[in-house]
C-alpha cells in the first residue's frame, strides 16, 4: 500500500529560500550588466534542469516500493531530461552551428516536458484527492480555456502560419499543466503530503507561468536571453530542485 512518509512535513528553510532568490536575482542582474553572456545563460539553463532530472531519478528509486510515487517521479525525471536535451540542442544550433534553432528537434524536447509534468502532478492529485466540487472543475476546465482563448484573441489577426499553430499547441499544453498545478497546490495545503510536495508544485507553477508569459512575448518577438521571464524559469528550476533535495533527505 502506498503511504506518505511522516517526515515530509518538515518546515521550509528560510535560508534556502533566500539563497535561491539571491542566486536567481544575482544571475539575472549579471547577464544584464555584462556582454557576451549567451554561453553563460545556456550553461546555467543546462545545469539546473539536468540536476533536477538526476535528483528526480534518485527520488524515484527511493520510492521503488511505491508504484504511484515511483512512476510519478520518473515522469518528472524524464520531463526535465527532455528540457535538458532541448537546451543542449539550442546551444549547439545557436553557438556552434550558427543555425536558427527554431524550429528544430529541440521543440519536440520542449513539448515533451508538458505531458510529463502534467502526468507527475496528476498522479499525485489522483492519489490524494479527486476533483468533485464546482470550484475544482472551474480550475481544471476554465483556466486552460481562458489562457488559450486569450492567446487566440491576440493572434487571430496574425497570419495562419506555422508559428500560429505552434503557439496554440504549446500554450494549450502549458495551460493544462498550469491548471493542474493550481489545483494540486489547493488540495495539498494542510494535507499529509507535507511541505516538500507543496514546494514542488509551487516551483512547477512558477515554471509553467513563465512559459505562458514567454509564448505571449514571443508574439511580439521581444524575447532575449536576458529577458525577465528567465527569472521565472531559474526560480522554478531551483525551487523544484530544493524540493527534491528536501524530499530525498526525508526518505
Task: Characterize this entry briefly.
Keywords: Membrane, Transmembrane, Transmembrane helix. The protein has eight helices and no strands.
Structure description:
- The chain crosses the membrane at residues 12-34, 40-60, 72-93, 105-122, 134-152, 164-185, 197-217, 223-245.
- Keywords: Membrane, Transmembrane, Transmembrane helix.
- The chain has 251 residues and is mostly helical.
- It has one domain.
- Helix content is 78%, strand content 0%.
- The protein contains eight helices and no strands.
- The protein has helices at 14-33, 38-62, 67-97, 105-128, 134-155, 162-188, 194-217, 229-250.
- The longest helix is centred in the N-terminal third of the chain and has 31 residues, at 67-97.
- It is globular and about 45 Å long.
- The two termini are 16 Å apart.
- The mean pLDDT is 85.
Q: Can you lay out the helices and strands and say which pair or pack?
A:
Blueprint: H1 14-33, H2 38-62, H3 67-97, H4 105-128, H5 134-155, H6 162-188, H7 194-217, H8 229-250
Helix pairs in contact: 1-8, 2-3, 2-8, 3-4, 4-6, 5-6, 6-7, 7-8
Keywords: Membrane, Transmembrane, Transmembrane helix
Transmembrane segments: 12-34, 40-60, 72-93, 105-122, 134-152, 164-185, 197-217, 223-245
